[in-house]
Design goal:
Four copies of one chain form a homotetramer.
Chain A lengths: L12 H9 L12 H14 L4 E5 L2 H12 L4 E6 L3 H4 L4 H5 L4 E5 L8 H9 L10 E8 L10 H13 L3 E6 L2 H8 L14 E5 L9 E5 L8 H7 L8 H11 L3 H21 L5 E2 L7 E7 H9 L5 E2 L15 E7 L6 H14 L1
Parallel strand pairs in A: 2-3, 2-4, 4-5, 5-6
Antiparallel strand pairs in A: 1-7, 6-7, 8-9, 9-11, 10-11
Helix pairs in contact in A: 1-10, 2-10, 8-11, 11-13, 12-13
């Protein structure tokens, strides 16, 4: 009953086997191996165009490197107040941009409000020397609240940004979960909606340690190989990343894994919302649930060995008001979550309610 | 016949199996998994003390993070002119120190000359505001020339550095190969010789992607967790690193692997030096050979499918003078190099001489 | 009728004469001249202790260098949402800290609310690797709203910060104006209230280009000379700064200048508040007024040649609600503002009301 | 008898008067004052084109900001081993480029050798990810040895750099002294010879604290205003810089000052070379002399109160071999050096020889 995070489990068996199979023989180092080539070809298919893709081992690197490619030191990155890049990466974007400023934008349920974005940008008239210069917009899909932007919403925000000359980044740590929930193509949810650079996550959804930074406009990646190398994010035995990503993508494996995780989240949501006193904080569409649990329910679950994080009351524009007897928690499912786990969790909750 | 680099092969079977075995079940993320704990315990044994160890996926990260922990932005890192950190990491040390300066020190065969170190330090009198401030010394063991410092030499250089208040770093990308060649203990070749921070490599010697940054003085690591996180070098599924390192160390596996690689290098050296016209550039003690090959020999080897790098004439203080008909090459063996590979290589060379 | 800023005028005659008088003869460069020594001695007197003082030419440098001395790259600087360091220095603090994060704290009228500071700090539990680490608190005295902290308020905020191990910085670009308004000693308003590092402004109050970074704890300044040099903020002809600062301080000249500026602001306030429809946004205590002007008044003043800035509606916790017919403006007086200027301004306003 | 440096004196009387005259009245802040406009217009005349010019208070800032405008963090700046930017600015170029690497190039008498530049660039083949990327070339005119490049030499080095896509910077801290020694136009010695960005010094030659960063290609200055602001190098009372620079340039004042300084150096050279045992280390063409003094001569001069620096034996490719009884010293004249000072110095030297 581990709902703490989708990074608490290992790799999917298929990804693991690919790692194993890729081990033998000599391969060129630093990403020139055949597995990385294969993974890049698969990404071209997935995004229906020739992409510039770079593989790294962590989501923090993926985000920070991407932002560093599109934001100068005197630039500003606009993102949601609750964005992971702003709060949970110990200043990695600041390091990789050599000191740019992240500026929080409002919006309920973890999603940037277009009017708020327009408004905050209007406070940065062009050429004002005393201010940092708007350089990029970063969207999280799925958001920190487990909510999703639909393609039209992404396009609207991207258009606002592009009008001001900003590049648009997507933090897609849970891209797959969002994609299968929305039911569009990967290209539609990114490139075609105006995303310029995508941090495409695989680790949380079945890889062991593999993310891709994907540029749809090659020009923006002109110096990216150096930026990766300089940051220590070019693996010598690059097959380690290439093999994971290739296996992750091949035959739609990544979508199957995400569907599994999302299904478990839906089952969990269905079960929990029937438990008296349990309420959801946000509309659950991917593999993350945020719920208010009555304290006895929380206590019973903990006692039963369930693992999950209490979620700080950060004013995310929730759909509910927390009662004094409520605990706000985050529950995350993964491809490895079993239906039994979900049943046991719901049952323990029900028993205590 | 791949002698291009020791990162051209995958992981040792035992390391790979450990990765496989570590995949199941939920584990705390970010290095708090049981495998990482086990690996840290093994490092304590290897270095005969309580160390502060952090696992990362690349050698560049390992070096740059270590230097960033002991060098302020206004500091100077002293290293050999030919050091990997100075020439082959695209400025990673500069990035991780926020702009420190690397200062090249002289010395033949890739080894810093103590007199040269003393001399260059004397040019940095304390408190001279217009100069960067001496902060650290970085030694490579094995060196870029495949040569080794013995423990006394390390201790002498470290003492010079400590006298001036510098911290001492060792780039141990090939620590294991050096160690078994010298025949001392790991503690003797590092901590006891005055090393403060060790970049302990495993990737080139049997891991897939795993290095450890090891602090013998915990105080120097006070902010290191943040520095790693901020650089995107904390893996979420930390078991990936912990499992590799634990398997690498357990039962002296790492030493066995290094002995294998070194034995192949010795066989290669024995064979090649008997080929007319082939001469070694440096005393070979680990798993790297630098040799001058007559052009016909080089051509024949390439034709036979051998892979290795031509080595630029960088004036490393070689034991030989290159003839106009010579090609200087680097040959690297690994744990996966077979005796057959060596025999085939030598035989092809002999045939052309 | 220039009320745009206190940096629109030149130096006070006395400061200018000192510059002139200091021009002759040879003096050691880089701050070792006799004028800088004299200025440091005067600062010791003013702050009633031995301070470590460094002179620079701009307020941005003074703030950013000070923050860089007390905040590591992975650190957080807590400051008011409207702080000059956060909004008006194009990211200088981020540059000088090599990428630290500025975190805005709430509080009405430009002043940090102690409860808000406590609350936000509680969201940064010690040792949380994914978060930047609380390192410093920066207070502006006077604030961006022209309001002041009294000594007890400074002490309360400093104590909260010190309890969490943060160093406390004061942006004293208008230190003198605040000091004479409050009526305490310079030491009471800084060192004795818990300030660790003070950016002590002189430029806005009579110097041409001179600010001092003052450390009350010498240990925090250990590397500061290097940090200044490396940032290009050590003037070769250091007498230029030393002579200004010495003349500024000698005989209480700086306090006289500030009293002049504040008196003009008081006269302006008195006059304006009698004009029908004109209302003050904040309690005016130094040399800055923020007022809501009826549009016809604003138009008449502009027509009469008055210069001042319209102030963006940034939700500063004002004492008033802006009417649709109101313009919020900032009016700044300086030592060079004449009583006639004030009278003419008020008269023009009155004529239009 | 102060020959320590050309920054040991104050401003020229004419520059000082201009500062005085510029003090009255209100002027727009941050470089939009009428004096700065006038100074920019004069620079356009001097360089015979529309330049983008920015005024700062120190030479270190001027150099580091210029390099930061043309060198990315993963870039390399090529400069002479003895360049001021490499040795005497405490890492300012590294800070302002966010971590670029300075790479020393050989050449006798402080001047980069074209063959050495070509050779070192050949070691950086395009697109090698493990290496920093060649981005800029920095030439010092006059050099650290007091020698000069003639226009053809500058053009040759600039052409080599441009062929590889590097931008070319000139550290012109003593631009005026070089210019009048060579006898060409300012445009010929910079723009027309291929310089892209010029750090144009005034402080050492008559200003109090004023340097200009001059871009001949406006595109390279696109973000420069932000880079300056962010570094704390935009003075609020910008007239302070504008007035100095305007007075410095008007009516060829700057050239007159440089001619004065150079004439004194020539007189000093003439006198000293007639003193038995005194030998010059480099061909003196501007206002710096490097001489070997017999120890008794050195002692007598010191006793007579002469101030000058002993110059470390840094192997500058001197024209002489130092005897064991010799002291290598640097002697610098300025516009304020009197003929009497020179005579007294020579006479004291002669007396001891």
């Amino acid at each position: 009953m581990d709902f703490a995070s989708d990074n608490a489990v290992g790799a999917s068996p298929r990804v693991l086997e690919a790692l194993l199979a890729a081990n033998d023989g000599a391969e060129p180092a630093y990403g020139h191996d055949c597995y990385s080539h294969r993974a890049r070809a698969l990404l071209n298919e997935v995004f229906e165009c020739e992409v510039s893709a770079y593989f790294v081992a962590t989501g923090t690197a993926s985000n920070a490197l991407a932002l560093g490619a599109i934001t100068p030191p005197w630039g500003a990155v606009f993102c949601h107040h609750q964005a992971h890049i702003a709060n949970d990466e110990c200043g990695a974007p600041e390091m990789f941009t050599a000191g740019a400023k992240l500026i929080g934008v409002d919006g309920v349920q973890g999603k940037i409000d277009p009017a708020a974005l327009r408004d905050i940008l209007s406070g940065f008239p062009a050429g004002t020397v005393r201010q940092v210069q708007p350089a990029s917009l970063s969207l999280s899909q799925a958001t920190e609240c487990g909510t999703l932007y639909d393609c039209g919403e992404i396009a609207e925000l991207a258009a606002i940004a592009h009008d001001r000359g900003l590049a648009v980044h997507m933090d897609g740590a849970r891209f797959a979960n969002a994609l299968v929930a929305i039911g569009c193509t990967a290209a539609e949810m990114s490139r075609k909606a105006g995303i310029d650079v995508l941090s495409f996550g695989a680790t949380k959804n079945g890889a062991l340690a593999c993310e891709a930074v994907i540029f749809f406009d090659e020009a923006k990646a002109a110096a990216f190989a150096y930026q990766c190398k300089r940051a220590g994010h070019v693996l010598s035995k690059g097959r380690m990343l290439g093999a994971q990503m290739a296996a992750y993508l091949a035959g739609g494996h990544w979508l199957d894994l995400a569907r599994l995780a999302n299904r478990r989240a839906a089952e969990l949501s269905d079960g929990l919302t029937k438990v008296p006193g349990v309420r959801l904080a946000f509309e659950p569409r991917g593999n993350q649930l945020f719920a208010a649990l009555p304290r006895p329910v929380d206590a019973a679950l903990r006692k039963a060995g369930a693992r999950y994080y209490e979620w700080g009351d950060r004013g995310f524009g929730r759909m509910l008001t927390l009662g004094t007897n409520d605990v706000l928690v985050r529950l995350v499912t993964s491809f490895a979550t079993s239906a039994d786990d979900v049943r046991a969790f719901v049952s323990a909750a029900r028993g205590a309610a």
